[in-house]
């Protein structure tokens, strides 16, 4: 649903995949789309069952009382981290951009059939050498 709003149909990527470029500040290279807050991502980030599982994992898998690595038994040292004590029941919802990768052969074909138009590149980015006009790169993820 999210990508259809931007004329990208996942059932017709050879025909619509070139539109992914407009969703990326890197013109399609790098695999990250500049879409931050679609409803479904908010629902996942704020889901109470997923949060309960996260709390349980933090409590079981990390030193959270400020333990020092030298005080831990060898078998438990993997739990140590340098960030000190923390409350396992408190956290923040972090919503990053959407990662999306096309199969390499498909990305190459789309790039060949739909070269970047300089008018599609934001004017601010035209003077930056890494944003020069070029075909879509081999994939949309690193």
Characterise the protein shown here:
The protein is mostly helical. It has helices at residues 13-16, 39-45, 48-61, 104-113, and strands at 32-33, 98-99. It has a two-stranded antiparallel ribbon with strand order 1-2. The radius of gyration is 21 Å and the shape is elongated. The two termini are 24 Å apart.
Classify the secondary structure makeup into a structural class. Answer: mainly alpha
Helical coverage, percent range: 10-25%
Overall number of strands: 2
Low-pLDDT sequence parts: 131-142
- What strand order characterises the main sheet? 1-2
What is the H-and-E element order?
HEHHEH
What profile does the largest beta sheet have?
Answer: 2 strands, antiparallel
Short description:
This protein has 142 residues and is mainly α. Helices cover 25% and strands 3% of the residues. It has four helices and two strands; from the N terminus they run αβααβα.
């Amino acid at each position: 649903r999210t990508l259809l709003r931007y004329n990208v149909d996942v059932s017709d990527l050879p025909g619509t995949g070139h539109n992914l470029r407009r969703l990326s500040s890197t013109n399609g290279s790098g695999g990250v789309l500049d879409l931050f807050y679609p409803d479904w991502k908010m629902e996942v980030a704020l889901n109470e069952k997923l949060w309960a599982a996260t709390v349980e994992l933090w409590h079981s898998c990390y030193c959270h009382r400020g333990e020092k690595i030298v005080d831990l038994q060898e078998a438990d040292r993997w739990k140590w981290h340098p960030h000190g004590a923390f409350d396992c029941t408190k956290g923040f919802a972090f919503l990053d951009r959407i990662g999306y990768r096309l199969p390499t052969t498909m990305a190459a074909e789309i790039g060949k059939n739909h070269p970047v138009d300089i008018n599609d590149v934001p004017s601010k980015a035209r003077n930056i050498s890494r944003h020069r006009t070029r075909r879509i790169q081999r994939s949309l993820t690193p």
